Backbone:
C-alpha cells in the first residue's frame, strides 16, 4: 500500500478549520441537547445512569408476526393497576413485529412480571427463552454516573502526569489538547445522535471514552517521539520541514495501526450483538478522530508561524 | 544459536501449556453469554457506614438461602463496601430468587428422643459423607466436567441413598445431592423431641475466639423466659447421652451435648456457649442460623439483569463470528503489506490469542460481552506493536542495512514507542478496573491482560520466530520482506 506525501505546512489552515468546525458542531450538539425539553442534559443519558427497567422479548409467531402498534399495546394494558407506569411506558417494535422492547421507570420485579403476563395475553405467546431484562435503581444510576465521571477525570490526570514526565511542557500541552479535541468530538457526536435518533449513552460509553483517551495519546506520543528524534538529529534544518517530514514518516504506520484496530471494530459493529453496537461505534469514531488529531492536528500545533 | 532455540522451544512449550489449561479448565462465561439472572443487592443502614463484619454476615445469611434454591454454580459476591452480587446461571425467574432471599426461617431447639443414639450416629456419618460429596462437586464444576468423577459422585450418592432408604429423582445431580442432605437433616431432626424453646426466646447470637486453643465458639443470649426454658431443657438431658439439636425449618443444623456439671440446675444465667472444633467460617454460619437466618441489615435489590439462554448462546455466536472475521481480515492485511513479516505476526497473534485465553482460565476471568470486546480491541493493539516494529525494520532495510541487522535494530528502536503506547492504555485499564462496575471490570480486565501479554508476544514471540526463520539461508531474501525499495524517493519528493 502506498501512501502519498502529505503537505502539512500548506494544509495547516485546512486542518485548523476542520477541527474548529468539528468542535463547534460538537458544542452546538451539546448545547442543543442541554436545552432540548426532552433531554435537558448535555448528552442523552441512558438507563444505566438514570435508573429504569428494560425488557426485550421475542414473540413466538408462525412465519410472520401479526402487525402491532405501541399505542394498541398501551390500550390493552388499561386494566394494569399502576397508572403512573402507563404514562411513562415506552414500546419499541423491531424485527418485523417480532422483537418487543419495553422501557419503564424503575419498578419492583413483581410489577415487571405482572406487566409481562398482561402483555402475553395481548401479544402472546411470548418466547421467554429469548427474554433479556435489566432493571437499575435510581440510586445505583447516580452512583454509576459519578463513578464514570471520576474514572474519566482520574485517568486524564494520570495521562497528563505521564505526558509531562515524558515530554517537555509544550509537547505535553499539545498532546493533551489533541486528546480533549478527540473526546469532545466523540461526546458531541453522541449528543447529536441522542437528539436526532434518541441514542442513549450508558456505562460502556464512559468506558469507550477512556479507551479512546489511551489510544489517542498513544498515537500522538509516537509521532511526537519521531519529531523530537528528528529535531535532535538535524538542528540546522528548518523546524517546520522537519516536523512535516516526521509526520510523513509516521503516516504509514499510524494509518496502518488505526486500520488494524478499526477492522475488528467494524466486524463487531456489523456482526456483533446489539449490546456492543454503540460501544463499538463510539470506539471506532474515537479511533478515527484520534488518528486524525495525532497525525495532523497535534503536529500542526507545533508548526512555527512565519 | 542455542539461546535462540531455547526461546523458540520455550514459546512452543508455553503454547502447549496454554492449550492444556484451556482443555482442563474451560473458560468461565458470564451470564450475558450463558443466560441466567443477576441481582445486585444493597445493604441499607440508616446511620453510619456498613462495616465489613455486617457485610460478611449478610453474605453468610444469603449464602445459606441461595443454596436452598438449588441452582448449581450460583454465586454470591461482595461488591464494594455495601453491595452484593448474586448470580444464578440458568435461572430465568429472578422473582423466585427474590422470594427466597426475602424469607426468614423458623428456629427451634429440640432434645433427643431417648435411645436413638445409633440412628443418630449413622445419620451424622451419612451427613458428613454427603457434605464432602457436595464440596467435591462444587470443586469439580469449576473445572472441566470430568465424567468419571461425576459417576464416582453419583455412585457414592446412591450408596448413601441406599443407607438411608431415600431416593431423590431430580435430573440435576446437584439438586439430588442437596435433596439428600436436606432429607438427612430432616431425619436427624425427627430423632429429637420438640420443646417450647424457639427463636423467639433468643435475644442474640454472637461468636468469639477461645483464648486457649484459638477455636471459635458461638454464644447465645436468651430472654428471661427463654433462659428459664433453656435451663429446664438442659437440666433434663445433662449427663445423659441425649443431645440438644438446633433445628432450622425442620432441618437439624447442629447437635450439641450438655455437660455433666449442669445435672442439677441446667444451664442458667440466660446465656450459653456452643463449642466444638469450629473454625471462623463454621462459627459464623452457626451464628447466622441461630439468628433464625435473619438478616442483620435489610437489603434492597438495586439492579437485576436477566438473559434468556437462547439469547446468551446467540451472543456468543455473534461475537465469535465477529471476532474471527475481524482477525482474518487483520491477518490478510498484515500478510499483504508485510509478506513474511506479516505471516509471522499472524502466527504470533494466534499464540497471543491462546496465551490470553489461558490466562483468563488461570486467573480466572469471567468472560462477558464487554470482555470479548476488550479481547478484540487488545488484538488490534497487539497488531499495532507488530506494525511499529515492522515499519522500523523497513526503514532499516531501506537504509541499506542487512536483513538480520535491520530486524535487530527494528525491534530495538520500536521498543520505546511500544512501551509508551501500552502504558497509556494500561493507565486507562487500571482506573477502569478499580472504579468500574461489574461489566466494566470485564472489559478492563481482558484489555489489560491483553496489553500485558502483547508486550511479551510482540517483543519476544515475533522476534524469536523471525530469528528462527532467518536462520535458513533461503529465507533471507529481502524481497520476501518488503515490496518496494524505492519508497524513499517518494518520501522526500515534494509534490507540487
Residues:
Amino acid at each position: 500500500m502506498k501512501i502519498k506525501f502529505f503537505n502539512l505546512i500548506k494544509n495547516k489552515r485546512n486542518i485548523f478549520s476542520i477541527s474548529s468546525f468539528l468542535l463547534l458542531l460538537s458544542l452546538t450538539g451539546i448545547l442543543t441537547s442541554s436545552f432540548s425539553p426532552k433531554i435537558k442534559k448535555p448528552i442523552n443519558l441512558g438507563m444505566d445512569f438514570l435508573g429504569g427497567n428494560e425488557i426485550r422479548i421475542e414473540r413466538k409467531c408462525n412465519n410472520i408476526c401479526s402487525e402491532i402498534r405501541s399505542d394498541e399495546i398501551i390500550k390493552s394494558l388499561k386494566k394494569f393497576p399502576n397508572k403512573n407506569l402507563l404514562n411513562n411506558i415506552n414500546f419499541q417494535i423491531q424485527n418485523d413485529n417480532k422483537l418487543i422492547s419495553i422501557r419503564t421507570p424503575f419498578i419492583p420485579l413483581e410489577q415487571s412480571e405482572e406487566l409481562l403476563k398482561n402483555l402475553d395475553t395481548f401479544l402472546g405467546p411470548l418466547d421467554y427463552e429469548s427474554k433479556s431484562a435489566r432493571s437499575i435503581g435510581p440510586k445505583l444510576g447516580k452512583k454509576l454516573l459519578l463513578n464514570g465521571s471520576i474514572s474519566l477525570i482520574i485517568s486524564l490526570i494520570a495521562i497528563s502526569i505521564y505526558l509531562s514526565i515524558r515530554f517537555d511542557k509544550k509537547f505535553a500541552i499539545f498532546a493533551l489538547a489533541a486528546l480533549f479535541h478527540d473526546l469532545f468530538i466523540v461526546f458531541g457526536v453522541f449528543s447529536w445522535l441522542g437528539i436526532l435518533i434518541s441514542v442513549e449513552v450508558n456505562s460502556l460509553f464512559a468506558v469507550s471514552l477512556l479507551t479512546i483517551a489511551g489510544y489517542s495519546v498513544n498515537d500522538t506520543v509516537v509521532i511526537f517521539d519521531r519529531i523530537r528524534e528528528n529535531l535532535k538529529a538535524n538542528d540546522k534544518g528548518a523546524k517546520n520541514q522537519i516536523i512535516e517530514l516526521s509526520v510523513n514518516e509516521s503516516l504509514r504506520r499510524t494509518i496502518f495501526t488505526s486500520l488494524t484496530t478499526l477492522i475488528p471494530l467494524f466486524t463487531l459493529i456489523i456482526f456483533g450483538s446489539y449490546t456492543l453496537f454503540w460501544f463499538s461505534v463510539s470506539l471506532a469514531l474515537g479511533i478515527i478522530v484520534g488518528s486524525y488529531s495525532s497525525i495532523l492536528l497535534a503536529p500542526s500545533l507545533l508548526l512555527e508561524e512565519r | 544459536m542455542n539461546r535462540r532455540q531455547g526461546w523458540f522451544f520455550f514459546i512452543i512449550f508455553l503454547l502447549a501449556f496454554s492449550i492444556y489449561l484451556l482443555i482442563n479448565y474451560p473458560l468461565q462465561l458470564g451470564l450475558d453469554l450463558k443466560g441466567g439472572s443477576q441481582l445486585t443487592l444493597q445493604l441499607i443502614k440508616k446511620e453510619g457506614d456498613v462495616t465489613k463484619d455486617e457485610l460478611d454476615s449478610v453474605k453468610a445469611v444469603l449464602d445459606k438461602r441461595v443454596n436452598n434454591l438449588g441452582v448449581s454454580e450460583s454465586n454470591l459476591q461482595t461488591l464494594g463496601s455495601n453491595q452484593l452480587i448474586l448470580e444464578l446461571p440458568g435461572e430465568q425467574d429472578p422473582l423466585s430468587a427474590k422470594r427466597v432471599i426475602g424469607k426468614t426461617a423458623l428456629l427451634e431447639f429440640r432434645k433427643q428422643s431417648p435411645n436413638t443414639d445409633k440412628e443418630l450416629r449413622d445419620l451424622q456419618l451419612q451427613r458428613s459423607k454427603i457434605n464432602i460429596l457436595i464440596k467435591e462437586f462444587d470443586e469439580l464444576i469449576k473445572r472441566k466436567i470430568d465424567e468419571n468423577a461425576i459417576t464416582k459422585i453419583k455412585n457414592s450418592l446412591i450408596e448413601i441413598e441406599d443407607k438411608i432408604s431415600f431416593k431423590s429423582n431430580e435430573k440435576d445431580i446437584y439438586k439430588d445431592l442437596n435433596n439428600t442432605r436436606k432429607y438427612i437433616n430432616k431425619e436427624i431432626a425427627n430423632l429429637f423431641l420438640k420443646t417450647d424453646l424457639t427463636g423467639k426466646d433468643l435475644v442474640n447470637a454472637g461468636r468469639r475466639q477461645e483464648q486457649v486453643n484459638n477455636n471459635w465458639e458461638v454464644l447465645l443470649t436468651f430472654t428471661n423466659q427463654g433462659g428459664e426454658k433453656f435451663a429446664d431443657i438442659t437440666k433434663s438431658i445433662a449427663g445423659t447421652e441425649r443431645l440438644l439439636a438446633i433445628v432450622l425449618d425442620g432441618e437439624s443444623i447442629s447437635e450439641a451435648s450438655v455437660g455433666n456439671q449442669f445435672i442439677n440446675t441446667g444451664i442458667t444465667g440466660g446465656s450459653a456457649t456452643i463449642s466444638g472444633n469450629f473454625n471462623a467460617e463454621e462459627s459464623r454460619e452457626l451464628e447466622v442460623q441461630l439468628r433464625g437466618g435473619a438478616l442483620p441489615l435489610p437489603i434492597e435489590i438495586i439492579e437485576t439483569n436477566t438473559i434468556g439462554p437462547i439469547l446468551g448462546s446467540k451472543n456468543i455466536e455473534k461475537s465469535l463470528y465477529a471476532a474471527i472475521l475481524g482477525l482474518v481480515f487483520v491477518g490478510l492485511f498484515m500478510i499483504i503489506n508485510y509478506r513474511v513479516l506479516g505471516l509471522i505476526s499472524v502466527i504470533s497473534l494466534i499464540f497471543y490469542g491462546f496465551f490470553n485465553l489461558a490466562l483468563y482460565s488461570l486467573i480466572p476471568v469471567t468472560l462477558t460481552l464487554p470482555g470479548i470486546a476488550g479481547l478484540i480491541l487488545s488484538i488490534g493493539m497487539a497488531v499495532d506493536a507488530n506494525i511499529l516494529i515492522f515499519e522500523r525494520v523497513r526503514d532499516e532495510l531501506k537504509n541499506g542495512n542487512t536483513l538480520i541487522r535491520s530486524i535487530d535494530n527494528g525491534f530495538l528502536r520500536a521498543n520505546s514507542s511500544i512501551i509508551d503506547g501500552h502504558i497509556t492504555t494500561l493507565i486507562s485499564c487500571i482506573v477502569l478496573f478499580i472504579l468500574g462496575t461489574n461489566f466494566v471490570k470485564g472489559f478492563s480486565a481482558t484489555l489489560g491482560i491483553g496489553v500485558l501479554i502483547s508486550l511479551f508476544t510482540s517483543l519476544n514471540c515475533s522476534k524469536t520466530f523471525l530469528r528462527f526463520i532467518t536462520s535458513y539461508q533461503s529465507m533471507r531474501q529481502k524481497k520476501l520482506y518488503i515490496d518496494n525499495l524505492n519508497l524513499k524517493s517518494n518520501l522526500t519528493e515534494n509534490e507540487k
